[in-house]
Amino acid sequence: MYCIRSALQRTHSYTVALQSRGAATATNFQSIKISPDDDGMRLDRWLRNRLNLPQSLLEKHLRKKDVSVSTTASPTSPWVKVGSNTRLQAGQYVLLSSALEEKKEVPVPEKEISPELTRILRSWVIYKDKHIIVLNKPAKVAVQGATDSVASLLGAFKYDYDEKPSIVHRLDKDTSGILLLARTKPVARDLSEAWRNHKVKKMYWAILVGKPEKRAGMIRAALTRRNKRDGDEPELVRLADPNSTVAKEEAVTAFNMIEWLGSTDSGFVRFFFI
After folding, report:
1. H/E/C letters for each residue in the chain?
2. Cα dihedral sign for 213, 218, 219, 221?
3. How far are the Cα atoms of 152, 248, 250 from residue 259, in angstroms, in the given order?
4. What is the pTM of this model?
5. How many angstroms separate the CA atoms of 177 and 98, rounded?
6. Burial degree of 34 (CB within 10 A; 0-12, 13-18, 19+)
7. CA 241/CA 256 separation, integer angstroms
8. 173: which residues sit within 8 A by CB, 6+ positions away?
9. What is the pLDDT of residue 208?
10. pLDDT value, residue 106
11. For burial by CB atoms within 10 Å, which of 20, 150, 160, 211 has the most?
12. What parts of the chain have a pLDDT lower than 70?
């Protein structure tokens, strides 16, 4: 059985001197060793699992340097600035300040799922083996962040496993389609790595209202990152000028018309990301 608590072995408290804004401050820190099960996990996800804090609050603590990662649990370990997307490695230590620990929320109890709801949720399953579960997510169902999101109902997909499966990618609430769940942490790590290295191709099918000038082509969009007012992690936004010099990334989407729907100006279109 995998358990988040396995990552909390060999926990120690230290008084760590760190440099903050030019002044050394003595702060009580807790040192937690990363288990092999959590190897490759994003720091923000690891923190959410442990502390049950919202992303906006985690981002605030990261900016205040209340969290660090080190190769040792020594109180004299060098203070390293980390971000939400920092990848953890087995054997490393995460240092948590007492300020962050004091704000730890009471864990939300696992949502009780009735047999009838379990039956409905499992009807979404179109493939299952010992490694993954593939869902056909309906539209209007959020993957994360809502009371009745897929993330809050993962217990229905445990089957004969002790741990709940993990969500390894997102799908917009209003979009129906394939949602992949990893049944173990090692599989979740490998799938997340595949997504991060663009080894997974996502394809979308849509009904388009209006006829494009071409039956097939490429859509290019210049993107940049913008901070949110609530302190949550920056979001990607599209720039009006595709050739903008401030663009940080570029999104390229290929499309082709499959067929027109009768005599209307609507068509069946396939999109996929390059």
Report:
1. CCCHHHHHCCCEEEEEEEEECCEEEEEEEEEEECCHHHCCCEHHHHHHHHHCCCHHHHHHHHHCCCEEEECCCCCCCCCCCCCCCCECCCCCEEEEEHHHHHCCCCCCCCCCCCHHHHHHHHCCEEEECCCEEEEEECCCCCCCCCCCCHHHHHHHHCCCCCCCCEECCCCCCCCCEEEEEECCHHHHHHHHHHHHCCCCCCEEEEEEECCCCCCEEEEEEEEEEECCCCCCCCEEEECCCCCCCCCCEEEEEEEEEEEECCCCCEEEEEEEEC
2. negative
3. 38, 35, 29
4. 0.60
5. 43
6. buried
7. 24
8. 139, 140, 141, 142, 143, 146
9. 84
10. 47
11. 150
12. 1-27, 52-54, 74-80, 99-110, 225-236, 239-248
**Which residue is it, tokens 């499959």?**
258
Q: What is the pLDDT of residues 193-216, one digit of tens each?
A: 888 788 888 888 888 888 777 889
Token pair, residue 51, equals: 């502390």
CA-to-CA distance for 157 and 126, rounded, in angstroms? 12
Antiparallel, parallel or unpaired: β 132-137 and 125-128: antiparallel
